[in-house]
Amino acid sequence: MMYDKYAQVILAITHSKADRIFDYGIPKELENIICVGGRVIVPFGQKNSRTEGYVVGILEQTEVPKNKIKAVLDVLDEGKPIFTDVTLELAKLMKKKCFCTLSQCLQAIMPTGIRTKNVWYVQLQPIMETELTEKEQEIVAYLEQKGKNMLIQDLENTFGSRYQYAIQTLKEKGILKFRQKTLQSTYKKEKRYVTLTDDTTLLAQAVEKAEKEKRLLGQRKILALLQEVKKISIEDLKEKTGVTQSPIQTLLQKGVLIEEREQQRRDVFRLEDFKPSKPFTPTAEQKHALEQMLAERKKEKKRPIVLHGVTGSRKTELYMQLVQEVLADGKQAIVLVPEISLTPQIMERFISRFGDVVSVTHSRLSVGERLDQWRKARDGEISVIIGARSALFLPFQNVGVIIMDEAHESSYYSDTTPKYNARDVAKDLADLTGALLVMGSATPDLESYHKAIMGEFLLVELKERAKGNVLPHTTIVDMRKELEEGNRSPFSRVLKQAIKENLMKKRQTMLFLNRRGYATFVSCRKCGEAMTCPDCNITYTYHAKENILLCHYCGRQEKVPEHCPACGSSYIRYFGTGTQKIEEETKKLFPEARILRMDLDTTSQKNSHAHILEMFGKGEADILIGTQMIAKGHDFPNVTLVGILAADLSLHANNYTAAENCFQLVTQAAGRAGRDRLKGEVYIQTYQPEHPAIQTAAAQDYEGFYSQEILLRRAMEYPPFTHLFSVLVTGEKENQVIEAAQNLWAMMEYFKERAGCIVLAPSPASLPKFRGKYRWRVLVKCKDLERLQSFVLYTVEKTKKKTSQNVYFELALQPQNIV
Question: How remote is the C-alpha of 195 from its chain's centroid?
Fold first, then answer.
């Protein structure tokens, strides 16, 4: 068949063998609704299975032979594009940097919840005179009973594997026909309205009957109200008349009422809940910082900006004044936050300033809510979006600024395929759109700060707190001495006393421990057996409230054993400390205190972050205990005391960024104290008080930490002085994984000299087993990025040819989390 136009389609298949463009003919009836960036259904494979695809181009000619060309079957989303020209280009850049398929990148960009699902149905056909076996007769009788049509999966589940052959023979005899159907969830919210019919005769008869018969009181109320208001929602109709659904349904069935449905967009906040605010008068330092950023924005070739501001320097106010300039030019703004817990505060500030042109998106919203915010962005109903890293992918047409708050955070890195760093994607998006990229933090990541020092990025600094108050006074507590002097409590004596005094002064305290749960692990005191997750080989964490053992990696849960599974002993003991245990200890020490806990366990419900923060902000609690959720971005004027428990936890991570992560967490947590007129106090409890990361964090001395850490990075040849590539080898059979990792290393060792790369010997990953798969890692370093990528891709492809298909290679450039 001849076609005037052809669609270039990327299939929604993530396998690398399908990672190419396929040409499909566009039927005449679809020519006017198909577009680049849209989604289609196309036939694929020998069975011509209905397959979702993404249109990346439209041609007038194709090189595919005419006898092999297939046609587009359907156009989805009413012909509206899912991808803009910019997001299509962004997906191509992500594919190159994330070493995955273009389909995987496009699926990461498209909104959640709209993927299609294909199911197979079986239909019973008219039966001619033919002999059927007993099993075939059973199947036919069952289908007749079920309406002659049902899912194949349901049919197979009903009869089991013994009837598989009978189902197949019925298909061959033409008695059963298999058909594929595409299902799609739209998540549209509709409101139902009713109006009176235009048929005056029918209406008059209905009114007359309702007036005569007392039992039709409900209908009489409905008809009377609609003669006044003309059109009303069914919800309001029931409320105003007090009727049930029954009289409404009767009038609809008779045609007296006409139903209309209107699609509505879900709002994620009520504008009336926010008081309008005006810009603050900037300090001289803030004014200079804003001028620097606005000057950079006017340049054709813009540098990314590292906004380095101490805690409490009001970086958010500068963000808003920058956004105000962007909106005045008719452009849009993307504001990224690393944690859902930070969303309520920054959302309140932006909505109070800019009103309903602002919206929010994050994973705790329902699929329908997130999809509606995406539609608002596509249709130009909003101009500012606040959200996690996925907010980068909203279909804005004219982005003017991209702001990353707390830009140093590791949560901006996606651990799932495609494994991207939001900082890199934001920079690419800024380059594609001509937008300004601003990365704000009190503790910038070393690589970005180094680029700013070298002039590749623009460094803008805020060294003073906006309200003129000084940084909090900090005390480092050596927990080794506490232990020597008989204090086995998680609280040092000075911290206990400080909390007691703070409570007496009616001031608030924040206690930070970056480990949730009650006990770190559960062990048998007789044989030493530790309770471990069989899928991850990692010790379970005990959660006292639920009385369960929980794997924090895969989510597996187990009941707490009464006896040791290894030796049968009843001597089970809980070791270590988590936020649950700290909460329990705090209640014992300070029974009069009102205490809140904020961690992953207490914030699993929708809006739970906002609820906890609102309670604490209103002074309804004296002490807030939490993980890193409470360590950054929050501004509570009455918080004058911060206790950092086990400050050196992150120093033990098996990662070259361990010291940097420790410095950032401690500095950010300490910065919550004394943010208003009241003086702040911080106690840092540690077993390594002399460590440079602890010392510089206590002094809030970023430059001091940077100058020491950057020398170490240079000496050890770690980023930013070299590029790092991780190859993670995974599989269900440990011996196959080890063999593949060793083969890869041997291949790399052979070629490394000519490539100029340094190859580290293969070793079990920090998390050696995850969800039933063993994990080994090979790390490669090289100063030349292109040579490094070519070297790794070449050696991995050669190794794959000699490796079992059950072993997988996951590639990550500049990995943030080496676990």
Answer: 43
